[in-house]
Amino acid sequence: MASISNRHTERHLVARIGWLRAAVLGANDGLVSTASLIVGVAAADSAKGGILVAGVAGLVAGAMSMAAGEYVSVSSQSDTEKADLARETAELAADPAAETRELAAIYVARGVKPDLANEVALQLMSNDPLGAHARDELGISEFSTARPIQAAFTSAATFSAGAALPLVVVLLVPLSGLPYWVSGSALIGLMMLGALGAKAGGAPIGRSVLRVTFWGAFAMGLTAGIGKLFGAVV
Questions:
Q1: What are phi and psi of 14, to 5 degrees?
Q2: Alpha-carbon distance 125 to 132, whole Å?
């Protein structure tokens, strides 16, 4: 029989949640926003050089905005986690018996019998009291811990990668059919991103692809309409 001390090596999809959310958001946002910007500017009958400048500016501004936004938002989450852990550390030092009862009560609420819950709480408190309370009382684990720098770099990099596709299309296709080429390639890219994100996260692929494709088409259609409107006015 295998030893009880053998390490648990099974990998779970939730371990990817820290970077997967930022990666999917960045790539989709980069592709949709840059393609929409290019389609809108092209629909206003702009020159190809102006369209390319607008697309590059959108890529740079969007990547920096994504990085800053992710860093600030995830930093706020990290600060909250640190504050909760500091408070829990103080409570453990002040009254460990009360914290043990609190931990046991959590397990009882989850269906563990009181005697066993108390025994489990005592053992966990003797080993890693802060880790036990962080995980079972606060819901903070190694999978969900906020990592601001990782989120910022991931978002900026994937935004730039997503935004690069419509820019390459601008360089390769003639101006006359530019909106259609950019829109078509963007929709194909969105379908691929939706499938990859769903595969990595273990979600249904069809629903993910349909969701990102619908909103991408909606965004590009809206900006194209605005571009046509302002181009006609000018």
A1: -65, -20
A2: 7
